[in-house]
Every structure is written in C-alpha cells, then in structure tokens.
Amino acid sequence: MNQQSFKTRVSGAVLCGAAGGFLAAAADILCATRRLGFGDSLLELTPITVSTSVLFGALLALAVVSARQLGRVASRQLPPAETWAVTLLAAPWLIFLAVRLFDGGQTSRLPFRSVWITAVAGLFIFGFFFAGRIFERVRRHLRRHERPALRAAVVAALLGAAFAAHFADVHLYRRLYLYLHQTLGIFSIGIFALAVRVALGGAADKRFEKPALRAISWVVLAAAAAVAAHSHAGGMSQTSRGAAYETMGPSASLLRLTANLGSKRRPGPQRLSEPQKPPLAGWVEHKSAEAPAPRAHILLVTIDALRADRLGTYGYRTRDLTPHIDDWASQKAVVFERAYCPAPHSSYSVTSLMTGRHIYDEATQGDVAFHPTLASVLARAGYQTLGLYTQGIFFTQGEKVDRYRRDKLGFENAVHGAYDAQKTTDHVLTQLEALSQNDAPVFVWAHYFNVHEPYLSTRFGDSPADRYQGEIAEADLAVGRLLESARRILKGPLVVALSADHGEEFEEHGGYYHGSSLYDEQIRVPLIIEAPGVAPSRVPGPVSLVWLAPSLLRLVGVEVPLSMTSATVVESLTSPSSWDPPLPVFGSVMKHHMVVEGHLKLIAEPTLDLYELYDLVSDPGERVNLFDHRPTEGKRLLGLLYGWLDDVARHENGDQRVLGLARMHDPRAVEPLRQMLADEARDPGCRAEAVELLQELSGYDAAPELRILLADPSRKVAMAAAIALGRLGDDSGLELLYDAVVSEPSPSTRDQAAFALARLKDDFALEQLIEALGRADNSVREEAVRMLGRLASPAASAPLITMLAEYRTRYLVVLALGKVGGAEAYDALMKVLDEEDRTDVRGYAVVGLGWNRDERAVPRLTEILAREPEIPWTAEALVRLGGVGRAPVWGVDASSESRAAIKKVKSCKEEPFVVEGEFLGRTTCTTFGQTATVSFEAAAESGGELLVRVGHAGVQRQERALGLGVWFDGRRVAHAELGKDPQQLRIDLGAAPIPSGQHTVTLNLEKKGRLVIDHVLLLAR
Q: What percent of the chain is modeled with pLDDT above 90?
C-alpha cells in the first residue's frame, strides 16, 4: 500500500470513528433527557458528551487502522496479518477483562483459577480474531459484489449489537463493575463506527482520496479535541453531573476516565482541619444575661411532621388549616420564619431539641454519651416537669438514643399519650390541674402525634395530602384549646413555644414521608415563641431547633449547662430587626449534610461530589442549583460545613476522630482510613471498623482490598473484611463467617456474620438470626427479621409470629412472613388483618399475602380493595394471587403478557423485585403517544368502580402534571391531573348494570406525552 492510500484509510477511519462516537453520544443524550428535559443543563452536557465520544471514536479508529497498517508492513504474505495486528492491540484489555471476571466471590475460589483465566483470555483473543476475520470477509464480499439488501442487513445487525451494548451499559449493573461498563462503552462506539463504514460502501474509498475530505477528517479530530479540552476545563454543573452519573452509558465511562465528571473534585477543604474557634457547633461558655421571665411556667408544644409552610402564619392560603395557631402567633408571639430541625427523624430531632446538641451526627459518628436535657436541668432548678408524648417518637433509629427513652428525656412525670389530638389535650389539662396545686413553676411538653402518617382524617378528601391537612386542622383545634385552658390553669407568667420535630414531603422533590432529604419540605419547621413582655414580631434569619433548649433556660433564668450549644434566640425576642443568628444552621440525614446561612442553603453529598446551592429568597422551592454559578459562596459554605463536621467529630485520639468523620460520610477520611488499615500496629478494633467505613466511603469496588484483609494477623480485621464481603455478595470469607457464627464470643459479631451469610442466602445463618430476634438493639432485631425473610425458610415462621406482638417491628414481620410462605404464615397474616388498625401495617400484611401466594386470601383482599382505598398495594397483590379476571375484579395488569390488551403500546417492562415487598410500578407498559385503549372482559350487574393506576412520561419532564381524560365504553367518566409517577385513580361508574362482554377504557393525555400504565381494573359492586 502506498503512502497516499494509507492517508486515505486514516482519513476515512477518523471520520467513521467520529461518526460512531457521535451516535453513541446521541444515545446517551436521549437517555439524559429523561432526567433533564430540554433545558440549559442538557445544552451544557451535550458538547462535553459529544466531543469526548467523537474524539474517543476517532482515536480508536485511528489506532485500529494504524495497527492494520503495521500488520501489512510486517507480513505481506499472510492475509490475516491485519486482523492479528488489531487483535494484539485489543489483547491487553481482553486479558484484563478475563482476570476481572475471575475476581468475584465464587470465581476467585475456583480450583486452577489461573488456568481458567488463561483459557478465557485465549477464548476472548481468538474470538475477537475470528470475529474480525468474518467481518473482513463480509466487507470484501460487499466490495466485489454490491448487494444493497445484504449491506442493509449487515448495517442493521451492527446497529442492533451497538444498541444492545448501550442498553446493557445503561440499565444493567448500574454503579457496579466499572470495567464492564468501560468494555461495553468501547464496544458500542466501535460497532457504531463499523456500521457507519459498512453503510458508506465501497464508493466511500474514492471520496476519502479527495484532499478536502482528508483535511475535514483532521479538522473534526482537532475540533473534537478542542471542545473536549475546553468543556473539561470548565467542568460540569452539579445538575449535569448527577444526570451523567445516573443516566448515561459510554459517555459516562469516558467522562469518568478523562475528566472525572469535571475539572475539580471536592471544592471544600481537603485536609482534616482543626476545629474552628469558636466551634461551629456552639460549645463555648454561655453568656450570663438578665432573664426576661424568671421562674415563668414553660409550655412546649410540638406537632409531629408539621411542615412550616402549611400554617397560615407562614403564608399558607389554600385552606384555613390553623386559625387558632395563626391568631395566637399574630397577637402574642414571635414567629421565626425559617427554623430548621437538625435531622428529619423524630428520634434525633426530639433528643436534639431537648439536649441542645446535634444528636444525629454525634450518634452517627459514635458518640452515645448521655447529656443533660431541658427537663432534667429545669427539674434540678425546682421545676415540676411533665412530658406527654407517644413512644412513636423513638421508633426511628431509637436504639441509638435509647438512654434518653429509658430516662424519659429527664421528665419526672411522663405520660405516653394517645394519637388523637383532643385526647392529648385532655391528658395535658388534667395533669396541669394537679401540678398547679403546688407553688413550684411547671414545665410541660405536649407532643401531638396525629399529624404523623398514617393520616386518618378525611375532612378534606382521601388523598394523602388531603388527609395530612385534615390532621393539621385537628391538631390546631386541640392546640388552641390547650393554649386557652393552660392560661386559666397556670397562675403567673407563662412562656409558650410551638414547633415540630420535622416536616413531611409530598413529592416536591420526588419522594414522600420524611427522613430521606434535607429539602425544606422535610427539614423546615415552625418555631413560635411567646414570652412575658415580648411584643409580637417576626424574625427572618435562619435558626435551629437545637438552639431552643438553651433559649428557654435563659428566658426563665436557669443556668445553661456547658453541654448545650451557646447559640440562643433570646436577643431576637427583644430586638428582632437588629438581631443576626449567632451561628449557621446545620443538619444531616444519611450521607447528606446541610448548612444554611442568611438566605443561602447548601446541601452536600461529598461521597459523590454532589453539591446543591439554593437562594431561598428567589427560589424557595429549591429548584435551581446555583453551586456552579456562585462558586465563591458555595465553597465558603462548604468550608463552614467541613469545619462543623470537624467540630462534631472532635476527639483527642486521632484514629477515633477519623472514624467519627467517616461515620458521618466525610470523604476526607478515606486516605487516613487506608493508612490505618495498612498499619498492623494500630488498634485492631479501630482497624476492624475502618474496613466497613472505607467500603462505604470510597465509592468503588472494594472487594479486592477486602480479600487481602482476610489474611490479616488481627482476627477482628479479618472478620470485619469477611462480613463486609458478605454484604457485597462475595463469599470469599465464607469459612470465617461460618466460624464466627459458631464460636465468636461477641453476640454482635455473631449477628453481623449471620447477616452477611443471609445476604449470601446461606441457611447456616438461620439459628443465629432467630437468636438475634431477642436482642435489645432494635436495629439488630429489624435486620434479623429482614434476613429471615430473605432466607424464606419455613423454620422461621414460628419465631417471626412471636415477633408480631412487638409494635415497632410488626410491619417488617408481616413482610418476612409473606416471604417465608406456608399455611402458618398465611393464618398469621390474616389474623393481623383482623386485629390491626394501623393502615401502614395492614398494607404490609396485604403485601405479605401477595408474596405468600395462597389463593384463599383473594376474597379478603377483594373486600379490602373495595373498602380501604388508602392501601395502595391491594390490586397488585390480587394480580399475584390470580384474583384479577374473575368476578368481582376484572381488568388488565400491564405486562409483556398482557400488552395485546392495550393498544398503541410502545414497550412493556418487568422490573425485578429490588425492594422487598414492593409491587407498585414493577410491571408497566408505555404508549407511543398520548392515547391508549385497554380492553378486557367484565360484568357487573349493579355497576362498579374503575381503578386506573397510570402516570405520564411527558416530552418536557419538568412538567409536574398533565390533564388526563378517561372514557369507559365511549363515555367520558373522569378528568384528572396526572403526575409523572403513576397514581391510583378510583372512578365511580355508578349503579347502572355493566353487561357481560368486552369493555374498553380509553386514556388520553391533553398534552403531548406518553402514558405509563400499571393496571386498569373494574371492581364490581
């Protein structure tokens, strides 16, 4: 081959490779639109994605054509020399892939592992070579004999293979096995490029001989390199970064390899800094100041799950939910417009309020010390103390604050009140009457639990949001009566404070309930304080619920213990216009941390390098992430956040301090943890804990490092590595786990080993799991229940049934019994439905019966479907039991098998049961357009009710709701606002007879989009 023809080959290869990269990037961008929609973030993501993929495709093609040329030069006599050269180019990666395939739990323990690796590597190499030879023969045949049909078939086959690889990359093993994603990415780009080359045909060779086209190929290469370099230098926004992590395939792998999704990682401090002075957590000596209301009575009212923006005094106008609280706040109190709980968990929020400390973060990083509470300090100062609250406040991770539960939060008198708001007020007033007979001042805490899920009130409607608002109105009425009567009963000055332990989410950021995010709907709470001589006013600056206990103590002239934060709101009561918050406000949940200063709020997930900065004045809904647009402010707040984490984790012992930071998911602890593990002279207990923490923090496959630690001289470290591997589904430490369950003296280690074995579905764990059901630690009992369900052994039925008597774990037990199955479990679940009145537990019992697969449950579930619409899983449980398609429940559950009954369907999916006990959304069908018709046989002599579970996949994903029209047999029967996530619509069809035969339900979106159908059922009366 002469020099001119080689240049032609190079230019053609560069252009075809660039085109292959472009096609792969286009597929990735289409996936990203599902999350981003068509907006600025997608525009930002597109150039960096396209340029990186185009550049990689061009370079890959250039490497292949160069290898082929070397093969030609080296051996002109051997026709396959070119293919062998390309194979040798790919061989290192193919060998690496073979090694990694035998790095898993089972495969790493195979006998003759090296022989297997060699054999598979050889198979990969020769397979690659023969695939190349076949492709070369097909290409030569197409050159000599132009056959359009054959060429089209080859192109279609190549495109199909490329799209299959792309689908596997995006949807299979998400966030796992980076090497596999990289392999699939390279494969899809390469096959896309081959498809382009074959599609161009032999005529392309002559076109590539033109100097202009060769020049274009190098311009494309240079332009892609320039755009990629510029894009990487500028970094990516946090919104685009999140989309790339979650939704893209080949491009995401390339971005991780080349730019790590941006130019800078962790823009906050990288070292373990010394605590700032004064400490950001506020542990300094308290100021002595004159008390505004010495020896005054204190009435503290908290309402569970009450978000601030549902009170009229905080601007809610849709319904008049809180007239009594609003009147009191406007006439007698100081309203703090932006108050935050320290964690959206009742257990931690209440204990933080009572201790003036960030208990969630302290407990997370290992500090379980017991601190003085507001009640205990006031009791020592001569106050009579009464707390009326439900034990439910300790149901979330309560074992970490169990000392406070057992000590009744320091109250001399504690009454565990009813859920009903009016009964709570009755109890408080009765106790106040008795306490008022003494001369000593009174501190009373009344916690109203009725606003917590399950919401029972239906005064505003049946939806969860309507029921929630109904419960708020019930609480307002009860609190109004309490405030009025308490003034009459208690003689003398009175301090009143009203707040909540956390808020509640209703899909504002894609979720429900609480305890899962740090957005305002979950973490912003009301805070309203009345004190003698203090005029009504409003305080705009952010404050923390942690500051309330020292504030109340200072108000009544009681010395604040040094254990409590020094930050208070006392000065704001008398000078609200000139008062500035003494500290930023901090909060945490799971791996997320928050800091609020002024009108800015930063939410950080440092382990993924994800940061969200919001301006709460211009963007109260927290929709526009400003972190990349206002980097100075974002980095300053992140510095404050890291300083606060350092302060919370303060410890004289360096290893303990590192472990404390790691428990709070601070990524700065990764390298110190590795150093700790590498030093066998360090404390074995610390090193054992470092094993688990490192795997959680590092964000990569830690299994190879953990396997090395199985041979550690310290048994504690080796055992911790075996347990961590078991949790990852790797059985390399199986023998150590067996030994631990049999002979380990520590019950905790035996339990953890059993949990790891259960993750591996090894029945050897069964006996130890049953023993763990009797532990005092609630989290251990809960995990034991979950793992017994995972093993699904009939021997677990009896022990699990005994656990039904325990209120806190009942919901988990019914799910586990469903997994275990059998007649004994069926009888127990039916008994739960007979005796249980809590909606959530009844719902889980329904799920358990669905798992159990005993068809005797069909009549009872049909009755529940008709009478308890608040239970969402009933229809899907009936589907699993074969109860749909026969009287009185008719209809279709969307799945691949039933797609023939749904016209205009694009695709149907069936997801695995990733979440144990989850039915909803597992089988759905998506339509081509905005209309679908569902047909099924049905009959109902007295009419019935239509049950449609449906959502939308709108063109603009930002659209929260689209109008939906529903027709039954050509008659319009309903109109609804449809969200992106499927929701259940219950439509009364009236009492008119529905004749036996084929019936149709038509669903039509009023705007362009696609329907996502879960089920369409007819429930006969």
A: 27
